Amino acid sequence: MKMKVRNKRDRILVTVKFSLKDEISRRELETLTGSSVRFFVAPKSIHRKRLLYIGRPAVSLDRFMKTHVTTRYEFYFVMAQIADAARRIESNKLFLNNLVLDLRYVFINQTTKELQFLYLPVLSNHVCVDVRGFMESVIYATAFDPSSGTDYVAQFANFLRNMEPYSSDKVCDYILKREKDISNRIGKGSPSGFLTDKPVDYYSHYGNQGDADHDGTCLLQSEDGSETSLLNDQESSEAVLPEEKESYEAEGTVLLDGEATTLLKDEGVSQKASPTSCSHDPYLIRVSANEKISLCKPVFRLGKDKDSVDYFVYGNNAVSRAHADLITRGSRCFVIDCNSTNRTYINEREIPAKIETEIHDGDILKLANETFEFHIS
Asked: Which of 189, 220, 254 is at the close of a domain?
């Protein structure tokens, strides 16, 4: 599957070219085109294995987060829209695994801060969406306005992490208790709260197992038969129209393993963190490289996945892709092990996974066998 994105005449144009093995669901396509499903960009035309989506003026969430300082209200509004979009999947009898949750392919209006999502109406039973993981990726990509404090970000991240199982209803309830005005902008929730990424579970729940449109399923596969989705990078995509040459398409591999959807870039020169200089913030010293890492975000992630961490721990295979989070709350700082393979240690003592452990000035933090010194300026 290949996607092209471009802004033209104040509109978002997204062309999706499906592989020969992808089977388009007519029922889902009619749902998207027959009525306006809020937050979703409706496909306007179809030609063979190609869909054209046309959306309102917007930019990618990835680009927006890199250039915009986000307020508390804007943060909660974005998170509420993500949760509500997942709820609307169920209320419109669609499937969660066809929702595109990728910072490059979720769009935001820079004035209203309203999101637009893409839904791919294909028959598939391959789980590829993690709503909670996508919310976490938004947190890590966001630059927050410090004028009103940032404790609310760490508290929300902790709420997400400890919620088992994930529930979009609970996320919306959490947000609306803190920003009541948002309820007027996202509307009410789904009728039953039932949400699934598997058609067989959906029809079992609703007692409608005879829908011929889902008698068979088809994995989201690429042209060569591998179970991947090919997405172009942001820079190339914005120069391409649906009718332009295929040579503009850039390909990458997308994870479909239940984690947040992430583009895997080629291994090469490490991408060191370049945080904003903050004289009053805590920081780490990576001992092996004598490198200072400023923790100028309320939730700061370390690991070896370049695309989903704030600091890429290059050159150490013992470190997990998402190894640990450092949470700054006022004048205190906490470490959370993200269920890493080789564990996290403070002063040579292993800390429990998924639980906040306070760290103090001068403490030694180890991710597997990678050593950092923790300091507060």
From this structure: 189
Q: Does residue 256 form part of some domain?
A: no
Residue whose tokens read 């030609």: 47
- Single-letter amino acid code for the residue at 111: T
With 0-12 CB in 10 A as exposed, 13-18 as middle and 19+ as buried, what is 88?
buried
Residue-wise pLDDT for 51-81, tens only, equals 899 888 899 998 898 889 999 999 999 999 9
Q: What is the CATH number of the domain that holds 293?
A: 2.60.200.20
pLDDT, one tens digit per residue, over 11-49 is 888 888 888 778 888 888 888 876 556 778 878 767 778
CA 352 to each of CA 128, 230, 346, 374: distance values in angstroms, whole numbers, following the listed order: 28, 37, 11, 19
The identity of residue 240, as a single letter, is: V
Question: Is 0.70 surpassed by the pTM of this model?
Answer: no
3-state secondary structure of 107: strand
202 in a structural domain: no
Question: Which of the listed residues 189, 206, 235 is the one where a domain comes to its end?
Answer: 189
332-337 and 357-359 as β-strands: parallel, antiparallel, unpaired?
Answer: antiparallel
